[in-house]
Amino acid sequence: MSFSITLPDGSKKDFDQAVSVLDLAKGISTSLGKAAVAAKVDGEVKSVNFMLEKDSEVAILTDKDEEGLAVLRDTVAFLLEAAAQAKYPELRLGEHEANEDGFFVDTDKEDQIKVTELPELEKAIAKLIKNGQAIEPVMVKKSELEAQFKNDPFKMELLKSEGDEVAAFKMGDFVDFGFAALLPNSGKVKHFKLLSVAGAYWQGKSSNPMLQRLFGTAFFKEADLEADLKRRAEIKERDHRTIGRDLDLFFVDPKVGAGLPYWMPKGATIRRVIERYIIDKELADGYQHVYTPVLMNLDAYKTSGHWAHYREDMFPPMDMGDGEMLELRPMNCPSHIQVYKHHIRSYRELPIRIAELGMMHRYEKSGALSGLQRVREMTLNDGHTFVALEQVQEEFAKILKLIMDVYKDFDITDYYFRLSYRDPKNTDKYFANDEMWERSQKMLKGAMDDLGLDYVEAEGEAAFYGPKLDIQTKTALGNDETMSTIQLDFMLPERFDLSYVGQDGEEHRPVMIHRGIVGTMERFIAYLTEIYKGAFPTWLAPEQVEIIPVNLDAHGEYAKKVRDELLKRGFRAEVDFRNEKMGYKIRESQTQKVPYTLVLGDDEMNSNAVNVRPYGTEKQESMSLDQFINELQADVDSYSREK
């Protein structure tokens, strides 16, 4: 036997007998042997005790490699399975996975594992680590594993796709399969944490049984684990679902409709302020606002291509009994096309800008729903501009300026531009017209280059009908999300036979530009809630001023007078008339993150003044009511930006 191992630097090592990954690493250097956690062998991750016996390309993985971290996390998932099955012999095991966020293990038993049981499981894992048990890769006959897992329908299902011999890992009496590579010894694990439990459908299908998913994470260094746990605590603190509940902004109740948010008065106020703001900005920019029905004849979506490309995301059509099939709209563009088509259009009218806060419906699976971010009913800040070909770049720049103006007012600064192109090899997803795609993509790129803006290019992220500029933001939870989009469309004007009368008296085809400034109201308010951590700037806050009389009998009437004056001027103010101690009321106002708390006693009442306590500070200041109103107005007018 003779073979060569090619290393990442191109050098080769020759062997005349099988050698383990670990011995290869030690042969390269003593330090690499100590640091090795796994290897990539011909592109596949393998354990350090994997035997090399043929020509291969090998890269040794250490704790500095992402794949090395994944091996560590897979190892902890393996230890969790072993500990959980030892603690609960009746436990059935489903899928497991390590990823950039940690790892999970799916389990099932009559009484599902509770989050309060995680500390005991952590202790059991810690004991396995302390004992330093060997974890060995083994080849096991499929029939032996079927005998082992005969009472576990989930493992039996996973075994169906395996061959006669199955690659598995063994630690003592515990054996499991489905892992690419694990650390060679449980004692190699140092820093881990079990995080949470949640329901998860078997293999992600809502028609399958609900299992219990145990989440955890692991790191090679304690400092990295501590930083990650701190990050997770911050995420939990910012979670819009938690804040929405604590501030009574919205709720979703599966009993009356999963993925269908109910906006409470405070949440409805935030939404109403945003909607009025957006409409006013668009009207000032030349848009004509419309209302169009949420139902449309299915034929329109067949013409547009949505039925062919997005049928799985659309609700089933409703048969009206006379041959008419109505569909809950998943997109607003066919509706705005009908508005455009309702009149004969002239070149003198172009650009024609049509906008709407359009309600849409998407057939989202239950497992994908999440607070306001993934819902079944949503309202999109939608707009479509119909332009002549020579107007495309100017209109594109105008839309982009509007988006930037809106971002400034909401203090959105962490974003970047992504030009999203089609994948020419994906003929199922994208409208087949090479000339159209090349022309529109070149036009979009040219517009960005003319504006001198930096951007990244992403193949396969375009809409099915045309390329687009996506403006990608970082959410407070660290996720990359599309906030705004501008899309060029030569296809729908063709399919719906749109035209305008040109200067020459002949009919011409317009270009359609789809654009969304802040996306859906639901997702945008979820984003803002997490960015602001529930402390909305004054212009957006559902309650801008909380008024607390020191004594209800002595100062209640003055509190009403102050409130009424604020309401008359268009501010949102309330008086706390509860029979509670003043200190409790002040703390409650801070908990509800009201921008300004006014405390009114004898001094304030006698001098027509207020004692002002801004949110998040220890500062208090007495001033005249008129001065406070002027300062409050300046705060609102500046969109609460620092002066």
Automatic annotation (TrEMBL):
One record GO biological process: threonyl-tRNA aminoacylation
Cofactor (UniProt): Zn(2+)
Residues noted as binding Zn(2+) in the record, renumbered to the chain: C333, H384, H514
Protein name, UniProt field: Threonine--tRNA ligase
Record text on subunit structure and interactions: Homodimer.
Subcellular localization, as worded in the UniProt entry: Cytoplasm
Biological source species: Lactobacillus psittaci DSM 15354
Catalytic function, reaction form: tRNA(Thr) + L-threonine + ATP = L-threonyl-tRNA(Thr) + AMP + diphosphate + H(+)
Alphabetical UniProt keywords: Aminoacyl-tRNA synthetase, ATP-binding, Cytoplasm, Ligase, Metal-binding, Nucleotide-binding, Protein biosynthesis, RNA-binding, tRNA-binding, Zinc
Family, similarity comment: Belongs to the class-II aminoacyl-tRNA synthetase family.
SMART domains assigned to the protein according to its UniProt record, in alphabetical order: tRNA_SAD (SM00863)
GO MF entry, a single one: catalytic activity, acting on a protein
CDD domains for this protein: TGS_ThrRS, ThrRS_anticodon, ThrRS_core
Top-rank EC class of the record's enzyme: ligase
EC numbers for this chain: 6.1.1.3
NCBIfam families, alphabetized: thrS
GO CC annotation: cytoplasm
UniProt remark on cofactor binding: Binds 1 zinc ion per subunit.
Chain's gene name: thrS
Pfam families: HGTP_anticodon, TGS, tRNA-synt_2b
Domain TGS positions: 1-62
Alphabetized Gene3D superfamilies for the sequence: 3.10.20.30, 3.30.54.20, Anticodon-binding domain (3.40.50.800), Bira Bifunctional Protein, Domain 2 (3.30.930.10), Threonyl-trna Synthetase, Chain A, domain 2 (3.30.980.10)
Domain Aminoacyl-transfer RNA synthetases class-II family profile span(s) in chain numbering: 270-537
